[in-house]
């Protein structure tokens, strides 16, 4: 793949990671939850490529 592709992909994935972490931390603060286990799901779609990808996982709060 091209350098432009690689750079744009890395920039997008970094933005996804950073903003997702911020959203989760904000959700925990609003709920006042420092502990617990939370099921998470992210769905990625890419217009024009027929990409639909879902990632699931568990987020554990501080114990």
Describe this structure in words.
This protein is of the alpha+beta class. It has one domain (3-60). The chain is 46% helix and 32% strand. The protein has 1 helix and 2 strands, in the order H-E-E. The chain has a two-stranded antiparallel ribbon. The model has no long low-confidence stretch (mean pLDDT 93).
Short note summarizing the structure:
The chain has 63 residues and is of the alpha+beta class.
Topology:
Elements: H1 3-31, E1 37-46, E2 51-60
Antiparallel strand pairs: 1-2
Supply database-style keywords:
alpha+beta, two-stranded antiparallel sheet
DSSP strand tally:
2
Q: Secondary-structure element order, as H and E?
A: HEE
User: Please, how many domains?
Assistant: 1
Radius of gyration (CA) equals: 15 Å
How much strand? 25-35%
- Spatial ordering of strands, largest sheet: 1-2
General shape: elongated
Number of alpha- plus pi-helical segments:
1
Query: Helical content, roughly?
Result: 40-55%
**Distance between the ends:** 43 Å
Briefly note the structural class of the backbone.
alpha+beta
Low-confidence stretches: none
Question: Would you tell me the overall average pLDDT?
Answer: 93
Sheet with the most strands?
A: 2 strands, antiparallel
């Amino acid at each position: 793949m091209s350098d432009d592709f690689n750079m744009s992909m890395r920039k997008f994935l970094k933005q996804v990671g950073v903003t997702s972490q911020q959203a989760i931390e904000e959700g925990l603060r609003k709920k006042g939850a420092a502990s617990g286990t939370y099921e998470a799901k992210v769905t990625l779609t890419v217009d024009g490529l027929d990409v639909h990808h879902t990632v699931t996982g568990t987020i554990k709060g501080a114990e």
